[in-house]
Amino acid sequence: xxxxxxxxxxxxxxxxxxxxxxxxxxxxxxxxxxxxxxxxxxxxxxxxxxxxxxxxxxxxxxxxxxxxxxxxxxxxxxxxxxxxxxxxxxxxxxxxxxxxxxxxxxxxxxxxxxxxxxxxxxxxxxxxxxxxxxxxxxxxxxxxxxxxxxxxxxxxxxxxxxxxxxxxxxxxxxxxxxxxxxxxxxxxxxxxxxxxxxxxxxxxxxxxxxxxxxxxxxxxxxxxxxxxxxxxxxxxxxxxxxxxxxxxxxxxxxxxxxxxxxxxxxxxxxxxxxxxxxxxxxxxxxxxxxxxxxxxxxxxxxxxxxxxxxxxxxxxxxxxxxxxxxxxxxxxxxxxxxxxxxxxxxxxxxxxxxxxxxxxxxxxxxxxxxxxxxxxxxxxxxxxxxxxxxxxxxxxxxxxxxxxxxxxxxxxxxxxxxxxxxxxxxxx
Length: 428
What we know:
The chain is of the alpha/beta class. It is built from 11 helices and 17 strands. It has 2 domains: 221 residues, Rossmann fold (3-Layer(aba) Sandwich); 158 residues, Response regulator (Rossmann fold). 30% of the residues lie in helices and 19% in strands. The strands form 3 sheets. It has a 7-stranded mixed sheet with strand order 2-1-4-3-5-6-7. A 7-stranded mixed sheet has the order 10-9-11-12-13-14-15, sandwiched between helices. Strands 8-16-17 form a 3-stranded antiparallel sheet. Helix 6 links the parallel strand 9 and strand 10. Keywords: Signal. It holds the Pfam family Peripla_BP_6.
């Protein structure tokens, strides 16, 4: 296995396995320390020992699928995470400590994810992780060890005190936002094919959508597919089911390429939907190879401000990705970037002598996180509508037009979250 790296990086790529994990380390040359670094080093040397921390370094990592069925959904995430670490190191690190960054592959496997997490904690003494995966098996281990963990799409981020969601806490099962349904209604949709791939998070989302559709007048669920395979699947068969159900709209959550292939198969069947939402549809390059199959489709990335919106933080992210030869439009890449950005924020909050416990205590009281503008709203980690803060109030939609994904002029905010069992509004 080879690992590409530029000369400034401290990194490693780790593949978790049941018996052992393989680590390939890449040593950095580093930039010349600023005069303040000597002062920081002296202060850091007085700190009590802490896992993952030395006077000159702090160990962070990315955990997610580099291989396996879910890996396509997270393309660019680990590289964007590394980019954010590199940017901080270029400024001298965090209080004089350079970030030593490692990538752990969970191979889209629950058992491998646990093994990789154990290696990160026990062998590598990682201070904190950003977990970017649809696999969730490592969260109990991370919680037990009070490992700071950032991410966006897993239930632990609305309940585990050590887990911090970059773009708002995910809704608990049975609670969902009406934003997408209302957006499709405005496009004339009345009958929705509700499709998700077979993962824990996507299934919770799809089941919640089913419940929400029962509560909204003028729109109904015409087809439910709760187990669309990740990776290879029969898009033609799925398109026929949509056609035969009489659906005039679709909500597709999960495997991005799966949603795109379903749209292409619908086009081949002569079906034109009034509206379709594909979560993760954010890369205009996809449209260059699909003809008009996606025209009018709603796209979103995973909660961040889309590339192309004139914000300084978006330009900093996108230009950094392009300079590194990476694709800034990948849906998952901004979340990888933000995952490390939030770890950096928590370490700064923890002060000159950070520990995992102090990180968690301090970041849990932060009420003004915006990712420097890469998040469309201000995030609070104090208890709100979930124990870990409020759910996202804003979504920044894009719409497919020809070979372009055009962002809305502004985010759609004021999301109303509803309990699908009681019909009660719990936020918004």
